[in-house]
Amino acid sequence: MRYKRMRGNEIEGHLDIFISRNEGKDDEKSVIWNEILIHGDPEGLKSFAKLLVEIADLNQEKVDNKYLPVGAREHYHLRPGFELANSSIEVIVGRLDAKGTGAFYDRYVSKDKLE
């Protein structure tokens, strides 16, 4: 099975991913929140989308254990100055489900659990 089309420079075009810290007022109370902003030119956004589909479509069970052991999750590191703009932060994009078990990591809270 072909595994990972390349290692490094997965993004073509221009892509910038960064955190925006925001402050405002809600009923006269100060509120602070963060947002992740993902901006790119058409080629950069399409390349990022292609990478996401590649990760989603990967059958982790068929990847040799020397590359992806049971309990691990497929992921890519996107680095400023390589895959991302120099103004970006490092980003790791990956699967939530673990190979062999399908388990999610402990810190994950389903959107259905937020009430």
List the helices and strands and how they pair.
Layout: E1 15-26, E2 29-40, H1 42-57, E3 75-78, E4 91-94
Antiparallel strand pairs: 1-2, 3-4
Number of helices: 1
Strand order of the largest sheet: 1-2
What share of residues is helical?
A: 10-25%
Structural class by sheet pairing and helices = alpha+beta
Which sheet architecture does the biggest sheet show? Answer: 2 strands, antiparallel
Low-confidence spans: pLDDT under 50, at least 5 residues? none
Give the terminus-to-terminus CA distance. 43 Å
Shape summary: flat
Could you state the order of secondary-structure elements as H and E? Answer: EEHEE
- The average pLDDT is 91
Percent of residues in beta strands:
25-35%
- Counting DSSP E segments of at least 2 residues, the number of strands comes to 4
Q: What is the gyration radius calculated from CA atoms?
A: 17 Å
